[in-house]
Design brief:
Blueprint: H1 3-11, E1 15-18, E2 20-27, E3 33-37, E4 42-45, E5 61-64
Antiparallel strand pairs: 1-2, 1-5, 2-3, 3-4
Length: 68
């Protein structure tokens, strides 16, 4: 997923993860996109300071979809 695809999915209320279900991409109350580690409650930015380089490879991000 590209940066824009990830942001659009999060904005649409979808659950986006990086690498595995421990690392969820969230948008905080001031509009920052962050990767949240559920096991240790740490956060890193979705991107580097340049705002475009992901903290991870594009192919490692995925949307969790449940069957309805």
């Amino acid at each position: 997923m590209t940066v824009n695809e990830i942001k659009a999915a999060v904005d649409a209320g979808k659950q986006v993860f990086w690498s595995n279900f421990n690392y969820e991409v969230i948008k905080d109350e001031v509009g920052q996109y962050l990767i949240h580690s559920k096991c240790n409650n740490h956060y890193i930015g979705l991107t580097w300071r340049d705002g475009t380089t992901l903290n991870g490879r594009e192919d490692e991000f995925f949307v969790y979809q449940t069957e309805e």
